Amino acid sequence: MLFSNILAAAALVSTAFAAPSDKETRANRKLKWFGINESGAEFGEKNFPGVYNKDYTWYDTKTIDQFIGQGMNVFRLNFLMERLTPNTLTGAFDKDYLGNLTQQVNYITSKGAYAMIQPHNYGRFYGNIITDTSGFKTWWKNVAARYKDNALVVFDTNNEYHDMDQTLVFNLNQASIDGIRAAGATKQYITPEGNSWTGAWTWVSSGNAASLVNLKDPQNKLIYQMHQYLDTDGSGTSENCVSTTIFKERLQAATKWLKDNNKQGVIGEFAGGNNAQCIAALQDGLTYLGQNTDVWWGAIWWAAGPWWGDYIYSMEPTSGVAWVNILPKIKSYFIS
To answer: pTM of the full predicted structure?
Structure first.
């Protein structure tokens, strides 16, 4: 999601649902991962370090319970590197920001769900493209060390690299993998992301396919993360969808690449507007993912969070437009 196009407003949450048992949800899953992006800790990206509950916020555990009650089992936690390690990549953690992140991770994983740790930085630090691959490796080694004993943590190398040298994107991803494994975090999945906003529809044409196929993980736990929106330019800034089949169509080249190269993938962001054409497109694309579970792990909706208000894709319980109108029409494609 192109963050500069996001407008956030406040929304309050209350009601909770009873969560199905872990055994029950595993048995009934059509896709391994059914998830939500929790977004808010990355807000106020012009203000560092920022003020908690003024510039940014964290996520309500009550809503986590509600999502789990709907069958979701992956939470992609958006945050900013600059707030976690102020000033430098290799610097000390901000204890409060780290504490909040860890609290979220521990709560989610205590429920048997996956917590995806995801710096929402676009391959940048304080607005500058990260070129210090050694420092980036150290950043990830330091972060991963905090969670190395929790097998339900997933490490997402960085959100939506874009307008960067392709070799640098490869090197940053590889540095992330190397740093994470050097920390002793060997149980966890890692989701590399690509250049060009990590779009599934441009995965091959952008050069991501030819480059990132060569990433190496000694634990063989890489799940390539791609994002896919259904509007004309694929930016996820419109309620409109190109057609009822556009989601599936935009996944096909990436699916072939995954199969041809014996790789695994996940759609880390997807969404569509609250209208008949978009809902049909979402259902068609999720059907396609379900037909290709040999390579696709699932999909993670963009987005939820307590400050999303009337955002066009908000799935924040209980009043978000996607919670009310879209989730009931797509969840059966993830869990029966």
So the answer is: 0.92
The torsion angles phi and psi of 312, rounded to 5 degrees, stand at -60, -25
Active site residue 249: no
Record the tokens describing residue 44, joined without a space: 């106020």
Contact of 289 with 298, CB cutoff 8 Å: yes
Is 269 in the active site?
Answer: yes
Classify residue 176 by burial, with Cβ atoms within 10 Å: 0-12, 13-18, 19+. Answer: buried
Q: Which of 38, 82, 193, 269 is catalytic?
A: 269
For each of the chain's 336 residues, which pLDDT tens digit applies? Answer: 544 333 333 332 222 323 344 444 465 899 999 999 999 999 999 999 999 999 999 999 999 999 999 999 999 999 999 999 999 999 999 999 999 999 999 999 999 999 999 999 999 999 999 999 999 999 999 999 999 999 999 999 999 999 999 999 999 999 999 999 999 999 999 999 999 999 999 999 999 999 999 999 999 999 999 999 999 999 999 999 999 999 999 999 999 999 999 999 999 999 999 999 999 999 999 999 999 999 999 999 999 999 999 999 999 999 999 999 999 999 999 998
Residue among 42, 45, 160, 193 flagged as catalytic:
160
